[in-house]
Design a protein that fits this description.
618 residues, TIM Barrel, 2 domains, 9-stranded antiparallel sheet, 8-stranded antiparallel sheet, 8 helices, 39 strands
Length: 618
């Protein structure tokens, strides 16, 4: 890995979190960040998470706005925000006009094609928040004027909660919300499937063919009108916590034979001593090389195997199993999945016609008789939810999560932590008595079920669907890992991978024959020390602070992170702390062991900062 982002000091996480510019009229307020209208609220209650008009290419990648012009005007009839830009090198002109009044807002959008444009989606996308919305009543107004009484789902819904939408009416914490759509046929999907903290109303219907063309000279016109009224009832500002005693999840580090070879081999002596979760593609990886690389890691491993959809898979599977046994490698668990299931399918299908998941599972069980056998998906929860494993199959279930499927800005990434409890609880309902042993829970996208490949990111920018995300190397990525682990622990997850051994999800890099640690390295070290211990109750935490603590060897140790967008503080209640904050050099892999804790009853936390706590066990 030769592209690094400031490995000499922790980048200032707060410098990259765009809180947005406030806008509004009277009790109706919002933020504008990178052209997206976010956090639309009435009397302080969030009623819409965001409204945007992303333009998707044929691989679901989001086109980058070019030649952006913005204008803000305050007039007697409201506050007006206008944004102009083009995409695809001038092929499509986008004009957005937004008017705020004390009673709501109206948005008008026009898309004019200067050249023929191929797109999977072009138009308004409106996100509904989760708080005060999930599980509540919803009235759907259809395009023919008829009304349907429905609800926002509580469990994460594999299919779409609403179709043929011309309007939506519902209530959020006492605020009546009336939304009217025009210019296209809209429908809704449960974005929690992809870890987005929202329900999404979008156009056009997925049942229509895509990609589709907007022909040269054609203009698409759409509008959204949002009306609000009522008396807001504010919810608590403190985060709800689950402090019931429970065993903390095991920590895994993900890897592939490619990550374990070449430069990756030099990392073996520096990565935390976590569970090794190795993915082997038996259609591409040589079993001899795979077993050789895995043997150098030492200790037991857990395997994720990709098998071909047809042809002989028995021989490469048996070859790998035999070489693992011959090398003395203990295989603790195995999941085998046909290659076709690395792609996404709608809940209604059609599903792949080749080798089945059950057939692959049975073959793995026969070749690894002492291992626990998993079922589920090697991609995202979405695919797991759409093709839930039958209750009689497998010793455990698995899936992964990625924070940048739809949006890659810092705010959206931290907001995905709101959706993770919904995901894990929904998965537990599917799993029954089978434990949740999760794959990689990361910011970056390991593989793309929705297109031919992940997004290319040579400049290490914040790009949706990119594997190589710059935040893996920064304090922001470390804070996100703390949040993901804390949520997993609260939901009873048994295992989770938060980083990798080498590759784009590594915890550091070899430079000049020296291991340079990234901030996430120290988080993984701390969590490995806590994994398997008994969770103890957290102090009262601000809503943006995620964390976990446990009693280990007579000490109470913990790790907490501010995964929010404002400065905050937490009470220690005694003990001491080690702060990992912006500007501090933490590249020494032994930094955490050598750092001197400071006694404190109160800890101030900037956005993205991480604190390691120490105290006496009760």
């Amino acid at each position: 890995m030769d592209r690094q982002a400031d490995t000499q000091a922790v980048p200032d996480a707060s410098a990259v979190i765009d809180n947005g510019s406030p806008i509004g009229c009277g009790p109706v307020t919002a933020l504008i960040a990178d052209g997206t209208i976010r956090r639309i609220a009435f009397k302080g209650i969030e009623i819409v998470r965001s409204v945007d008009c992303p333009i998707r290419d044929a691989n679901w990648g989001t086109a980058v706005p070019e030649n952006v012009r913005e204008q803000l005007d305050e007039r007697a009839d409201g506050v007006f925000y206008r944004r102009r830009f083009d995409v695809f090198e001038g092929a499509l002109d986008v004009h957005l006009n937004t008017q705020f009044t004390p009673h709501g807002l109206r948005l008008d959008l026009s898309l004019t094609a200067n050249r023929s444009v191929l797109t999977n989606r072009a138009g308004f996308t409106l996100l509904h928040p989760l708080d005060g919305v999930a599980g509540t009543a919803l009235t759907i107004v259809h395009s023919d004027g008829s009304e349907e009484q429905a609800a926002f789902p509580m469990a994460v819904m594999a299919g779409q909660p609403a179709f043929d939408i011309a309007g939506l009416r519902h209530t959020v914490h006492g605020v009546a919300v009336d939304i009217a759509f025009a210019g296209d046929v809209f429908e809704m999907e449960d974005q929690r499937n992809w870890t987005d903290a929202s329900f999404k109303t979008y156009c056009r219907p997925l049942s229509l063919p895509f990609p589709y063309r907007i022909e040269a000279g054609h203009t698409v016109a759409q509008s959204i009108a949002i009306k609000v009224s009522g008396d807001a009832s504010h919810s608590s500002l403190m985060a709800a916590t689950n402090d019931a005693p429970a065993t903390l999840p095991d920590i895994a580090l993900a890897a592939t034979p490619a990550w374990l070879s070449g430069a990756g081999r030099a990392l073996f002596g520096h990565v935390p001593r976590a569970t090794r979760l190795i993915r082997v593609d038996l259609g591409h990886d040589d079993p001899v090389d795979a077993a050789h690389g895995i043997a150098k890691l030492g200790g037991s491993v857990e395997l994720e195997l990709i098998v071909n959809d047809d042809g002989d898979i028995e021989t490469p599977l048996a070859d790998l199993a035999g070489r693992m046994r011959g090398s003395g490698i203990e295989v603790a668990s195995v999941i085998a999945l046909p290659r076709a299931y690395l792609q996404s399918y709608q809940p209604s299908g059609p599903w792949p016609a080749g080798r089945t998941i059950t057939q692959a599972m049975n073959l793995a069980a026969s070749e690894f008789p002492g291992a626990r056998i998993g079922v589920g998906m090697l991609t995202s929860f979405t695919e797991f939810n759409r093709h839930a494993p039958p209750p009689e199959l497998g010793d455990f279930v698995t899936y992964s999560t990625c924070a940048i499927v739809h949006a890659a800005d810092d705010r959206s990434v931290f907001e995905t932590l709101e959706a993770l409890p919904h995901i894990h609880q929904s998965a537990k309902a599917i799993a029954g008595d089978r434990p949740l042993r999760l794959g990689l829970a990361s910011i970056g996208m390991r593989s793309n079920p929705y297109g031919a490949a992940v997004a290319d990111n040579p400049g290490l920018d914040r790009i949706a669907m990119a594997m190589d995300d710059p935040r893996q190397r920064t304090l922001f990525g470390a804070a996100f890992a703390v949040g993901a682990y804390a949520v997993a622990a609260a939901c009873g997850v048994a295992r989770i991978a938060l980083a990798g051994i080498g590759g784009p999800f590594a915890t550091g890099v070899i430079e000049n024959d020296r291991f340079t640690a990234w901030p996430i390295h120290h988080v993984i070290e701390a969590l490995v020390a806590m994994a398997g211990g008994q969770r103890v109750a957290n102090p009262a935490l601000p809503a943006s602070v995620f964390g976990i603590q446990a009693d280990v060897d007579g000490r109470r140790i913990g790790v907490f992170a501010n995964c929010g967008f404002e400065d905050t503080a937490m009470s220690m209640g005694g003990g001491s702390a080690i702060m990992m904050s912006a500007g501090e050099d933490v590249t020494d892999p032994d930094w955490l062991a050598r750092a001197e804790p400071v006694a404190s009853d109160r800890i101030d936390l900037a956005p993205g900062s991480v604190v390691f706590t120490r105290g006496s066990a009760a």
